[in-house]
Amino acid sequence: MVARMLPAVLFGPIAGVLVDRVDRRRMMIIADLSRAALYATMPFLGKIWLIYIVSFVIECLSLLWTPARDASLPNLVPRRQLANANALGLVTTYGTLPLAGLIFAFFAEASGVIPYFETNQEALPLLLDGLTFLFSAFMLAQIRFPPPAARRIERLDVSRVGKDIVEACGSFARTPSPRR
Fold it and tell me: Which among 25, 47, 124, 178 would be 20 to 30 A from 133, CA to CA?
């Protein structure tokens, strides 16, 4: 859990600022391709600490991908369908977990076809997961992203990232919490 939660604490504030400064489509494709490669290498790592490091990096990439998707949706979907698009995003993110469990059970039983998977049953789902990220990158490459109306994509100015984070934290501190 530390490898999955620590990135949100350490990298989360920076990730949102980075997503606002770069081409979101490119960011999502690079994150998907990177995650595919990392998942594909995971079965071949012999040390548990390497798996933790890879998991940490995968979570950091997810912290880039998800805000890029969320920020891109209003530019891709008509306003009247935005709630449906957001709901579909949540369903595909969390609703597929039971399906993944069934697929894993099927492949665990059928893994005898390839001897390597018979003794390394965790490798097949990790490799299949890597393939899903490749598919996602391929699909993203097919979508034409219109530029956002309110901003244009700028060069990444690293000196501005820290200022943006401080400004966001200050705004958060000054904003009163909602009351019931």
Answer: 47
Question: Whats the size of the chain, residue-wise?
Answer: 180
Half-sphere exposure of 149 (CA within 13 A, CB side): 4
**CB-CB contact of 21 with 158 (8 Å):** no
Give me the sign of the Cα torsion angle 115, 119, 120, 125. Answer: positive
Q: What are phi and psi of 25, to 5 degrees?
A: -60, -50
Q: What is the Rg, in whole angstroms, of the alpha carbon atoms belonging to the chain?
A: 19
pLDDT of the chain along its 180 residues, tens only?
A: 777 788 888 888 888 888 888 888 999 999 999 999 999 999 889 899 999 999 999 999 999 998 898 888 888 888 898 888 888 888 877 777 787 778 777 776 766 667 777 777 778 888 888 999 999 999 999 998 886 555 555 566 666 667 776 776 676 667 775 544
Could you give the CA distance from residue 85 to residue 77 in angstroms, rounded to a whole number? 7
Q: How far apart are CA 6 and CA 142, in angstroms?
A: 33
> In the chain, what are the helix, strand and coil shares in percent, each to the nearest 5?
80, 0, 20
